[in-house]
Structure formats: C-alpha cells, structure tokens
Write a structure and sequence with these properties.
The complex is a heterodimer of chains A (732) and B (375). Chain A is α+β, with helices and mostly antiparallel strands and 732 residues long. Chain A folds into 3 domains: 151 residues, Penicillin-binding protein 2a (Domain 2) (Alpha-Beta Complex), CATH 3.90.1310; 88 residues, no CATH class; 371 residues, 3-Layer(aba) Sandwich (Beta-lactamase), CATH 3.40.710. Chain A contains 24 helices and 27 strands. In chain A, strands 2, 3, 4, 5, 10 and 18 form a 6-stranded mixed sheet that branches. Chain A is elongated, with a radius of gyration of 37 Å. The termini of chain A are far apart. Chain B has 375 residues and is mostly helical. Chain B has one domain. Chain B is built from 14 helices and 3 strands. Chain B is globular and about 60 Å long. Classes of the chains: A alpha+beta (732), B mainly alpha (375). The interface between A and B is large, with 43 and 50 residues.
Chain lengths: 732, 375
C-alpha cells in the first residue's frame, strides 16, 4: 500500500460539509412540504381543475318545428345546406399529400389554396368570419389547427348538392375533408307569408345569458325575430340535447362521462291560414294598389292590409300586409344591405300593418256608434232622422259656451258634393246602410231636440271597447298596438284642452282622436256579424309533436309564453277550440251612464249587456248597405253577389306627417284612407274580410273591390274543397 | 493488492437507488408517451441506455479514477473540440444548439462536458491543494471551468452554465475558500441576478439571454393571472397534475392530465408531475427520497475518498445530481422558474442518463479505492 499516514483521506472542514448537508436537507424538505401542500391540503381544488380540463359539454342541436298552413302546406321548414369542412387533425400526415388535397379541392369549390402559410397571411385570414370568402384553404386550416385541430373549419359554405356529393365520393382520397350538413330555415311561401311567419336571427348579446340558461348556444342556435317564429319560439325551438364528454388536450372526444340527453325536436305548428286564400288576398292587394298607382301615375297607395277570418271561430284565414319583405333572404345571415334597405324604406316593410299600425277608422267605426245609439235608446228602430247635406254645429268646450258664428262650422255628409240636400229623412238602418255622417253626428253628439241627448263620448267609448277597440286582441303576433278611443280625461291630460262637442261629433264617425288597427276593425265587424260574440282571433290551429300527435297548448298573450297547461290569462291554441272572449249580449260589459243635471258619469259597478235586438238591428243595417239599391254603400259591389253579403265601408280622413309634408292637409280636402269590411253569408257568417288602403280614397271604390274579390275567392276555394271531398290540393 | 480495489466496498445502496430510479423512469416514460405513436420508440431506447449505463458503472468502477485524472489534458481538448464543433454545426432545436448527430443518435456533448468539467476541476484542486486559499487559487479553478462554461453559454444553455457554476462554487467551498470571498461573490451574484430579473421584468433585452429565457423569468416573478393558455400553461398544467394526484395518485396509466396530454413535455421536463399525478404523494416522496439517498451516498463517497481529487469528483457528481433534481422538481411544483434541466435518472434522455451513469461509475471507483483499515 503506497499511501502512508501522510496522505490520509482528505478530511473537509466539518462545518463546511455540515453546511452542504443542511442545504440539501432544507431544499428537499422544502420540496416535500410543497408536495404535501399541493397533494394533501389543496388536492380537491386541483382535482376539480383537472376535471374541468377534460370535461366538455357538447350541445346537440334540436331541429326546429315545421310550420304548416291549415291544410298541411309547408310554410317554414328546415333544409339541408352543405358546407365543405376540413378537420386539420384528420388530414394526411405527408405535407405533399395535404397540398394535393388542397389543390384538388380548390379546383372543385373555387376557393384558392392560399399559398405559403406566413404570419402575414394568417393575420389577414383572421379578419374573415366563417363562411365569408377570402382566405385561402391553407390559411383557414392553419388557423383551425392552432385553435382546435379536432374540430372542423368551414372552407366553403352553402355548396350545391352536386359538389357535396362529389366531396362525399372523394372522402377516401381526401382524408380530413368532409361535408357538413347544416339545417337552415326555408320559407316556401317567402314574402307571401313573411309578416306571419317572420324569420330567424342570432341570439342578441343582451339575452345571451337567458338563452344560455335554456340550453341555447349563442352564435349557433337561432331564434325567431318576427311573426310566429318569434311569438311561438318556445314551442318551435325544441330543447337541445346535452352530452358530457371527456376530451383530450386537442379536443378529441374520448368517451361519454354521463348518459347523453337526447335533443327534443321542436313542436310542429299548423296555422289557421289557408295559403290559397292568402295568395288570393295578396294578389288582390297588389293588383289594386298597382292599378290605382298606375292610374294616378304616382305612388298614391303606399301600404295596405287584407285580413280574412272566420267570425264564428276567430281563425285568421289570410292576413297580408303590403309592403312585405322576402324572409328567405334572412335564412343564413341577416344581410346588412337588405336590412338597411328595409329599415330605411318609409313604407316600413318590416311592420305588419294589420296589427302594428294605427289609423283613423272612419265610417267603419260607425258600427260602435250605431250599437250604442240603438242599445241606449238614443234612437228607435223606426225613428226618422233628418239627414241634410250638412249640419252647422257649434264647438263648445263647456256646457255654458254660447254658440256664435265664430265657433260654428259646417259638418258635411259625404254625399254633400253630389247631393247638397243630403239623404233626407232616413231611419236607423238607412243611417248605417248609407253611412250618413250627419245621422251619426246627431246620434253621437245629439242635435237640438231631435236627438237629445246624443250617445256622448263616455258611452260611445263603452260600446267601442265592447266591440274590441282600445285594447290588443291577444293574437299570436308580437308588436300589436292597442289603438285609441279617447275620453275627456284623456284629452285633458294629453292635449291640455277640454273635450268639446265637436270632438264627440267627429269621434262618432271614427275620426278625430280615434285610432285603430286593421285587426281591431275586423274584430268589431266580427262581433256584429257573430251577433255579439267576440272570438279570440288566432293564427294557430294545432300543435303537434315529432310523432304527429296533437299536443294540448295554451298561449298567454301578456308575456307570449306557450305552456302545456292553462295559466292565468291564457287561451287554448291546440287542439283547436273556438275561444269566446266575450258575448256582449250575455256578459255585462257596458257601464251604465247617468246624469245628475249636467254632471254625467259612468258607473263601473253597474254593468249591463247589449240587447240581442240591438245587435240584430246593426246587422240589418250592414245588410241594407248591400241591398239598398239607391244609396247602399256596398250595393254596387255585392248587389248581384250570389251569396248574401253584409258590410260597412269607411273613408277616413287623415293628416299624418307624410300628408302634412306633402301639404295635402287642406281643410275640407284631407287625404283619406280606404276601408271596407264585409261578411258572408249574412244569416250564418263564415267569412269576414277587411281591406285597408293607405291613402286609398273612397272606401267603396278602393277597399271594397278588394273585399269582394277575396270573399269570391273564399267561396271558390270552398267549392273546390267540397268537390275534392275535403281533400284540398296542397298549396297555391 | 490492486491499489485498494475492493468490490466489497462497492456501494450497492447507491447502485440500488439508481437502478430503482431509472427503472421507475422507464416505466413512467411508457405511461407518459402512451397514445403518441411517434414517441413510442423512446421507451425501448431509454431501456437500452439504462442497461448500457449499468454496464458503464461497473466498467468505470473497475478502472482507477486516477487514470482519467492523468489524462485530463486530452480529455479536456476533446470535449472542447466537440463543443466548438457543436456551436458551429450542431442542430438547433428550440432556439439552442445542443444536439450532435452521430449516426442515428442525437448526442448532447453538454451532458458529458459536465462530467469532464468535474474531473478537470477535481484535478485542479488536487494539484493546488497546498496553495494558500487566495484569489489566485480561486481564479485558477474559475479559469479551468470557464473554457467549458463559455462554450455552453454560447449555445446558449443557461441552465447548464448555472449547473457548472454551482459545481464550481461547491468545490471552492469544500476546499476552504475564504468567507470574505464567498460574501463578495454572493453580493456580486445577487446584484447581477437582481438586475437580470429587474431588466427582464422591465422588458429590456439582455445579451447572452434568449427572449424566451427572459420571458420565463418574468413569468415566474410576475405571473399574469389571465394568461391560462400562454407561457404559464405548462406550469399550470403541471400543478394541476400534481395536485389532482392526491395522496395515492390516480393510478398508473390513468392520470387524466398525463394521458389526455394536458401536461406537456411529460416524458422529460415534467415527468415528476406525471409521476405525482399517477402515483400521488407516495410516488413524489419516493422520488425525492431516492434523490436524497443518491446524493447522500455520493457525499459519503466524497468523505471516504483517499485524495482530494476523489473527494471533489464525488462531491461534484453529488452536486450535479442534487442541483438538477431539485431545480427540476422545484419547477414541477412551481417554486422555481422553468428551465430545461431534466430529473436525473428518471427523465427521458440518453446522453443525460449515460453521463450520469459515468459519474456514478466514477463515484463507485472512488468509494472502492478509499483508504480504509481493512484486514
């Protein structure tokens, strides 16, 4: 052994070694403490994050319900639209293979390959939303590869079925390239039913949380924006399914963590609309408007409405509003240029004039005055009313106001220019049939000792409300207006003036402050036609589930909810039952009116009904308008009609912003809206039609012919249905 | 008598700990690369390297370490040539030149350079053991180390520069460097480190540091709480993996973080997190304890060595293993910034494993030839 005591093993200074041991010990203890802290004390929190990492909730979209008309003709459906998608992770491994796939695909779908993937080209590609042409295939795939390589990216949207089929066939040669079938909404009747059906759009950011809570996925699922697509959103949408899956870091699904909840398809809805009658109504409206606008060589009639309904059941058979829009243009996206065009159009094509526009009703409102006057005994059935060509009436704001020349002005009848002497001595039925303004001024406002007192605004308002004015009807469409039936208090609050006698006169003929929607006018007519019964107007006939079973459904018009059970204020929409809102001959709705000297007031406690005889008298008046050959307002149109028709015309003076801007609001020569309302057969009405033409002129000559044509179409369609033994051919 | 050779003194505890650690490593690598076809060959490759390593231990142990000390000049020259060539022609991976392709194998000369640096420094301290412990003595050691350090710094590979610096510091310390020199070095080092951190946080580019290295420092010092998918992603996933493992782990092959690949570079840098997820605290504690045992046995060898050079080699290997292991585990537990240092004997890496086995072989050689009273 060469080593002696001189070369003993080197002994370090002990403290230096101890320091080393101490450092090692401290470091390892520190790591151990940290490990225990993480794995024992904080373990559950970290474990939750691990679960969060690998858990993914996949929403399975529910197919939206289909909308049919009453005969099963499809008004809204889901069509397959084909998108070409690429899943980056499924592309071939070899780069040259990928390039080959890109090249071949590019040739087929006409999207550029995109050249080399550079940072600049990627930044440029990021600016494009999905489906918007621009970036090359390579760029789109490269972006998706960094985001979620196991999810697909849409390379080209809405390709033809032929291209989709070619891509399907090539699936072996083109791994990673697939055809994605995306359901999009299709409206076979397009603009014909756009106001009724509406359209779909994205979930607005404001309501994202609300819809997310219901299982919707913003930016994927769409919701109704108008029409029944909007109002019946609850039942049409269905319920999205849910799968809770385990995913790896790339997003690839490994397995289901929980039993999947399948999607529940939306309910199908059958509307009360008869598409054939709807088409007839639209054609009539367009033709009439085209005719008059051509005749006057200007856009005279800018909008119009036709509504047809079964007065006994409240089923809306047709409802058109001009101008309309093409809802098929909104199926994929809402194109901004088209939406701009629609929203800037002064005629407001997106507005359903039948329910959302308020106009002065003019003479069609006389039905309310007539019902009140006869029921309150203002006039007897056999009383004779003197109807000269014009009345000189004075405007009094207080009972004590003195009549003088300064506050007296003529109130003319519509026949005044043709026959200055007027209708002469006429009875109550003739007042209605001839639509004598003078007669109704007297009935509404009273006239000297002949009619004293008149009905008065308070009582007129009671009867107008009984006929459905001054409130919404509760139909399954959003945006319904309630119109306005004024009373003295309203005037004082809103204009700062007392109610005057002149206000009562013009309100009696549906002018002045009175505003109504076309649907309200139709409903008032249906109450008369239906001998006092106010039906619930409805668009829905039936709701079925995916297996075609009819599902009972109730609709609540206050909050637009649809439930499978009855709720406060709701009415049944499926299976169809006629819902009577009220019967004025049975339900006491009219507040009684009493006068103590000059102070008159309504008594809300003391309610009364409308006598059936009163309604029958008004009905007879509407029939006389057709049968009276001399002055009957509808005699020219329906005198020779094979079925007994009854109705009322209206020519409503108006002075709105448009007319004022055109300087057409000249005293005594205001522009007029054209109204006509008619029902048939008179004895047992099954159809009531209302036509309205904005700035149309005389009711009988513009709106009247439209009503006539639609009623004729109704009976022709009925004859065809009977001939084909109740199996109507689908669609127009 | 063959120069005190005695297989009876062979440290079987050390060998056992290493065989256990590397076996566990291959088992864990198998779980970590499951599901990734490209990485499948790594399992077998690691097994080959481990077997080769054990053979190397016995081969190196049977040779007197003093032969290597005698050959320090050609060895030093050879590794410098390797490192210079590497800086010129090596394959650049992730922004650093660290690989050297020999046939089908990628070799990392840096791993071997660390062992060689230990041998060269040990030779210096042996040679200078009777010199006064002044600055000249200290700078002599720094000079010997700096050749290799500069070449590694040029790659750039900051973590290994740090490893070598620590080895150098420990050797100086053990050989009796003066406390006043230690204090000044610590003060200077602290100032340099503080300014590095401060400049990085302020976003000033520092020469010799790569942008990603500065980013790592910033991410560690001031983590961005909203940055869940950016640079902190890997560390965060490692923490989730460790925490989710709990006391007994999720089971081998059943760690969701590892198997569903939320945990990145799980067969190398983050293998500790993968092990802690699948084997829980039990696994983590065993890894730390085996690291402790290996380090303890190496320091024990340093105490027993018959000369300064042997002591220093054993101490250097102990420092190498301890520092790399602690830094790696610290990174996995987010108590230290991210670095590329692997977990000794467990992380995948042929060169690293082989180099460490060489080091252990040297330690065994030292412990087998220690001066003892044996009759």
């Amino acid at each position: 052994m060469s080593s002696g005591p001189a070369s003993r093993p080197v002994r370090f200074e002990a403290w230096r070694l101890s320091a080393i041991y101490l450092i090692v010990f401290l470091a390892l203890s520190g790591l151990l403490l940290r490990l225990v802290n993480l794995q024992v004390l904080q373990s559950s929190a970290w474990a939750a994050q691990a679960v969060d990492n690998f858990t993914n909730q996949v929403s399975v979209p529910a197919p939206r319900g289909i909308i049919y008309d009453r005969n099963g003709y499809i008004l809204a459906r889901n069509l397959a639209s084909y998108n070409i998608v690429i899943t980056p992770a499924a592309l071939p491994a070899d780069d040259s293979d990928i390039q080959r796939v890109y090249r071949e695909l590019s040739e087929l779908i006409d999207v550029s390959v995109g050249g080399p993937v550079t940072d600049e080209s990627l930044e440029a590609a990021k600016l494009f939303a999905a489906c918007v042409p621009g970036p090359g295939i390579a760029q789109m795939v490269a972006l998706q590869d960094t985001l979620a390589p196991f999810s697909s990216v849409k390379v080209k949207c809405n390709v033809s079925e032929e291209i989709a089929r070619i891509v399907e066939e090539k699936s072996v040669d083109w791994p990673g390239v697939e055809v994605e079938v995306e359901p999009i909404r299709d409206y076979p009747t397009g603009s014909l039913t756009a106001h009724l059906i509406g359209f779909l759009g994205p979930i607005p950011a404001l309501f994202e949380d609300e819809y997310r809570a219901k299982g919707f996925i913003p930016n994927r699922d769409k919701i109704g924006y108008a029409g029944v697509e909007d109002s019946l959103q609850d039942i049409l949408a269905g319920r999205n399914g849910l799968r809770v899956v385990q995913v790896d870091v790339a997003g690839q699904e490994i397995r289901n963590l929980e039993p999947p909840i399948p999607a529940v398809p939306g309910h199908n809805v059958y509307l009360t609309i008869d598409t054939r009658l709807q088409a007839a109504a639209e054609a009539t409206l367009l033709e009439e408007i085209r005719f008059w606008n051509t005749y006057f060589n200007t856009v005279r009639i800018s909008s119009g409405v036709i509504i047809a309904m079964n007065p006994k059941t409240g089923e809306i058979l047709a409802m058109t509003s001009y101008p309309s829009y093409e809802n098929n243009r909104f199926t994929r996206i809402i194109p901004s240029y088209y939406y701009e065009q629609l929203s800037q159009d002064p005629r407001k094509p997106l507005l359903n004039n039948a329910i959302s526009a308020e106009y002065p009703p003019g003479s069609v409102f006389k039905l309310s005055t007539a019902t009140g006057a006869i029921n309150e005994g203002v006039v007897g059935l056999d009383d004779i009313v003197q109807a000269p060509g014009q009345l000189l009436l004075c405007e009094r704001f207080n009972p004590n106001d003195v009549c003088a020349d300064s506050n007296t002005r003529p109130f003319v009848d519509h026949i005044f220019e043709k026959r200055p002497e007027g209708f002469g001595a006429i009875n109550f039925l003739q007042c209605i049939a001839f639509s004598s303004n003078v007669c109704f001024y007297k009935l509404g406002g009273g006239y000297e000792d002949e009619i004293n007192p008149g009905l008065g605004i308070e009582r007129l308002r009671q009867y107008a409300r009984a006929l459905g004015y001054d409130e919404t009807t509760g139909i399954q469409l959003k945006g319904e207006q309630d119109g306005l039936i004024p009373d003295p208090q309203w005037k004082r609050i809103n204009t700062g003036e007392n109610w005057s006698t002149g206000d009562t006169y013009i309100a009696s003929v549906g002018q002045g402050y009175v505003l109504t929607t076309p649907l309200q006018v139709l409903m008032s007519g249906s109450v008369i036609a239906n001998s006092g019964k106010m039906m619930q107007p409805t668009l829905v006939r039936e709701v079925t589930d995916g297996d075609r079973n009819v599902v009972p459904m109730w609709f609540n018009p206050t909050d637009f909810t649809v439930t499978e059970f009855e709720t406060e204020g709701s009415y049944q929409i499926s299976p169809f039952v006629p819902n009577t809102r009220w019967d004025i001959t049975v339900d006491p709705l009219i507040q009684s009116f009493s006068c103590d000297d000059v102070y008159c007031s309504l008594d809300a406690e003391n309610l009364k009904i409308v006598q059936p005889e009163s309604i029958q008298a008004v009905r007879a008046g509407t029939r006389l308008a057709v049968t009276a050959s001399l002055f009957g307002t509808l005699n020219d149109l329906f005198g020779d009609f094979p079925i007994a028709v009854a109705g009322k015309t209206g020519t409503a003076e108006y002075c709105d912003d448009v007319a004022r801007a055109a300087e057409r609001c000249n005293f005594g020569a205001w522009p007029t809206h054209s109204w006509t309302l008619a029902y048939a057969p008179y004895d047992d009405p099954e159809i009531i039609v209302l036509a309205f033409a904005y700035n149309g002129g005389e009711g009988a000559s513009v709106a009247g012919p439209m009503v006539e044509r639609v009623i004729r179409a109704y009976f022709e369609i009925k004859a065809i249905d009977i001939a084909t033994q109740g199996e109507p051919p689908p669609g127009p | 008598m063959t120069r005190g050779l005695s297989w009876r003194s062979f440290d079987f505890i050390l060998l056992g700990a290493i065989v256990l650690a590397s076996s566990f490593g291959t088992v864990m690598i198998r779980s970590a690369v499951a599901g990734n076809e490209v990485l499948q060959p790594l399992i077998l490759r690691q097994v080959y390297f481990a077997l080769l390593g054990v053979v190397l231990i016995f081969l190196v142990a049977s040779v007197d370490y003093r032969y290597w000390l005698a050959l320090y000049r050609p060895i030093y020259l050879a590794i410098m040539i390797f490192l210079v060539t590497l800086t010129g022609f090596g394959q650049s991976a992730f922004g650093a030149q660290r690989w050297f392709q020999v046939g089908v194998l990628f070799l990392q000369p840096t791993e071997f350079a660390k062992i060689i640096a230990i041998v060269v420094l040990a030779r210096y301290f042996e040679y200078a053991q009777h010199q006064p412990r002044d600055l000249k003595w200290a700078f002599g050691a720094v000079l010997w180390a700096s050749g290799i350090i500069v070449m590694i710094l040029l790659q750039p590979n900051l973590s290994n520069v740090l490893v070598l610096s620590v080895i150098l510091a420990v050797m100086l310390w053990m050989n009796g460097v003066q406390i006043k020199h230690v204090v000044s070095a610590v003060v200077i080092g602290a100032i340099v480190l503080a300014s590095l951190v401060a400049l990085s946080v302020l976003g000033v580019r520092i020469p010799f540091l790569q942008a990603y290295q500065q980013e790592r420092i910033v991410n560690f010092v001031v983590p961005d709480p909203n940055d869940t998918y950016g640079n902190r992603y890997n560390v965060r996933q490692a923490l989730i993996a460790v925490g989710a493992g709990g006391v007994f782990g999720e089971g081998y092959g059943h760690g969701t973080q590892t198997q569903l690949r939320f945990l990145k570079v799980r067969h190398t840098d983050f293998i500790f997190a993968a092990s802690s997820e699948e084997f829980g605290m039990v696994g983590g504690v065993l890894i730390i304890m085996s690291l402790g045992i290996i380090v303890w046995r190496c320091i024990r060898a340093a105490q027993k060595a018959r000369d300064v050079a042997g002591s220093m080699i054993a101490m250097g290997v102990a420092t190498l293993i301890f520092f790399q292991g602690a830094v790696n585990i610290g990174m996995n537990l987010n108590v230290l910034p991210v670095s590329g240092l692997p977990l000794p004997f467990i992380s995948y890496g042929g060169s690293g494993l082989t180099a460490l086995m060489l080091g252990i072989g040297l330690v065994e050689s030292i412990v087998m030839r220690h001066k003892q009273m044996e009759f």
